[in-house]
Amino acid sequence: MTSKEMFWTKVKRILRGGFINFWRDGTVSFASVLVMMVTLLVIGMISFSGAILDTTLAELSNKIDINVTFVTTATEADILNIKQSLETLPEVLLVTYVSREEALTAFKERHSNDPSILAALDELGENPLGAVLNIKARDPARYPSVAEFLQSENVLSPSGISIVDRVNYFENKAAIDKLTRIINSADRLGFALTIFLAIISVLIAFNTIRLTIYIARDEISVMRLVGASTTYIRGPFVVVGIIYGLTAGILTLLLLLPITYWLGGATEGFFIGFNIFSYYLRHFLEIALIIMLSGICIGSVSSFLAIRKYLKV
Amino acid sequence: MILFDRVSKVYPDNSVALEEVTLSIEPKEFVSIVGPSGAGKTTLLKLFLAEEKPTQGAVYYDSTNINTLSKKEMDKFRRRVGMVFQDFRLLPNKTVYENIAFTMEAAGRTDEDIESDVPHVLELVDLTSKVWNFPRELSGGEKQRVAIARALVNEPDVIIADEPTGNLDPANTYDIVQILKKINDLGTTVILATHNKGIIDLLKKRVIAMDRGKVVRDDKSGKYFI
Questions:
Q1: Which residues of A touch B71 (CB under 8 A)?
Q2: B137 CB near a chain A CB, below 8 Å?
Q3: Which of A84-93, A171-180, A209-218, B156-165 bottoms out in mean pLDDT, i.e. has the lowest?
Q4: Is the pLDDT of residue B223 over 70?
Q5: Which of A226, A234, A313 is the best substitution to test chain B (most B C-beta atoms within 10 A)?
Q6: A66, part of any domain
Q7: CB-side exposure of B19: number of CA atoms within 13 Å?
Q8: Which of A25, A271, A285, B48 is the most buried (most CB within 10 A)?
């Protein structure tokens, strides 16, 4: 037999040994797979919580905009001029013009249930509302520079007199900043918590596998004494660890289907438009890869390390 | 062939298991090591397998100090020695066939060799009907015969048997001893540690008597007395 043939014979024997051990040690395998599933569920949670926070942050950022309200005497031409110069700014994504009339219609619609306000409006006789430019930036971090641009006098008052009534960015700024900070720290806290949980559950999985190898310690010493090499003894145990990881990975992925389906509606209501079930289906390959690889790594590395102690005969 | 050169073994709790033991065993010899519990019989065998290291002195096999062997050389050396223990030490999750095949696989033997040699060696110990049984389904005598088959299958130079009949009834004891004798007749060195008087008297082979870590007697064709 050539050394190459011997190599493949060895690989075949190690794989077969691993499968047989996994199957014959049914109870131990079952318990180990269950423990490993808990670990993999926690790891799955990390990708979900990250996505939830990212989507929420994106949704909130989307809701941030700047409203520039003009004085009622501003001419439409002046406003459209400003609109045009705003649109040339690289940080600006979209500028929407709301004329005085449109603003009034919208105001009336909003207060259609409040006759006193409508009566007061009638009393005034003329439209008290100024036209509005609604500005959306490409990135929330760019709003300060847009606001700065609006403040520069030559933009706002071509004739020397300011035609801008107010810019709401400065009023909302504090609230926007606070919200961003809260989301960021929630993101960090959530990440730290899930990492902490993941470390604990990986340790539990490692200990479970260590116990399964502890049970087999006499067997390992016998293998040593009949002259089996380190690779030949360790191989099947590592294979068993990989099978634990693969089985637990597949079961976890299957279990996540009903779990996320059940949580889907609740998450959609709670986290502005984030449905955990559709996220799971959309990112299935990515999540499956993370969970399967984690399972295989935890299983094989744990076995590899745990058996070391008993190989020293 | 095997030489214990002024070997002492002191365990960490300061108990002395062997004290300046010097003895040699020639190829194809059948040597029984006798003595009460705690005499140092098992320690002597463990030192030969390098399961334990001597505190002083050295153990030689074919003029090589076995404690200087590398891991790889140690694996090779152990494949030249077959072992039989009082508690059988079979692999519980493997069938009789697989237990024996494992030893051959570990020695890098081919699948064809395994398929032809395992049935042959099982025939030698009269266990052909139990090939696919697990150790838990066998009696003590049957387990010990599997252990002997496993020790034999790689055609070792030496067979070490540590109280192989300690857990067996007289009929099975007699069988095991006959098998060991047959193995020795075929040219394998056998080292047998026991405190069974009947076996020694039956064998009429070399007897080394030990007591409290020392060799107290070495008879070419001995009887059991201390």
A1: 230
A2: no
A3: A171-180
A4: no
A5: A226
A6: no
A7: 11
A8: B48
**B71, B93, B98: residue with CB nearest A25:** B93
Asked if residue A171 belongs to a domain, the reply is: no
- This model of the complex carries an ipTM of 0.77
The reply to whether A236 falls in a domain is: yes
**Nearest-angstrom CA–CA distance, A209 and A229:** 21
**Residue A170 domain-assigned?**
no
Q: Which domain holds residue A298?
A: 3-60+179-311
Average pLDDT, stretch B23-37?
92
B79-111 residue pLDDT tens: 899 989 888 889 998 999 999 999 998 888 899
Dist. CA B93–CA B74, nearest whole Å: 26
Task: Examine the fold and report which residue of A162, A197, A213 is the final residue of a domain before the chain moves on.
Answer: A162
This prediction's pTM: 0.73
